[in-house]
Structures are given as C-alpha cells and as structure tokens.
Amino acid sequence: MRAGHADAAAPDPLPVRDPAVQPERTDMAWWRTVLAFAVLTLLVWRGAVMTGDPIGFAVAGIATVGWASFGWLARRRTAELRRGRPRPPAVRYAVVAMVPVTVLVPAVAAGVAFTTR
Q1: Per residue in 60-108, pLDDT tens?
Q2: Cα–Cα–Cα angle for 14, 19, 23, nearest 5°?
Q3: Taking the model in full, what pTM does it have?
Q4: Calpha distance 89→22 (Å, rounded)
Q5: How far is residue 66's CA from residue 104's CA, in Å, rounded to a whole number?
Q6: Tens digits of per-residue pLDDT, 40-52?
Q7: How far is CA 101 from CA 10, 23, 30, 49, 68, in A?
Q8: With contact defined as beta carbons under 8 Å apart, do 83 and 25 qualify?
C-alpha cells in the first residue's frame, strides 16, 4: 500500500453485533422474572393457607392476578422479540408490568403484617 493511504492507518472495524443474542437474553430475563413472581405468589398462598386468614387469601388472589398479567405481558414481549425487530413497548405494556408489582408490594407487606400477629 502507498504511504499516506487512508486504509493503511485505519484500525480494523468493530465486529458486527449478533442480533440474535440480545433477544435471547431478554427472553430469558422476562421468564426468569415470571418464575420469581410465581415463587412469590406460591409463598403468599402458602401463608394464606397456613393462617386461614381471609386477608391472606385476598393478598394471594391479588398476587395471582399480578403474576398472570405479568406472564401475559412476558409472553407478548417475547413473541415480538422472536418475530424480529420488536417495536418499542407501548404504554399499556408498561402499565401491565407496573400495576401488578405496585399492587403486590403493599399486598405482601399487609399479608406479612397480618400473619405475624
């Protein structure tokens, strides 16, 4: 090559990112979260059954609805990821993800408060 040629001093280009890796990691993260939510829901049900308290059963019902809605959301998002380039999440997805978690935290706190008396 000639001296002063632009290609002679240019570093090697960065490798192209494999687009299949990110969706797979995101998919696994969604389902790991759903699994953790399921474990928490089962623990809430266990506490409700052990105490027999109606408030515990109400908390367990809220936890179950939250887990089911979060699982629905995970299924929708991972299906979009598998199809190719997903659209940015809509506001309704954020609401579906936020409401169960926001409701479940005080519900579990209330369940703990009422079952430890």
Answers
A1: 888 898 888 888 888 888 887 777 666 776 777 777 777 777 777 776 6
A2: 140
A3: 0.64
A4: 16
A5: 7
A6: 889 889 988 988 8
A7: 50, 23, 14, 22, 12
A8: no
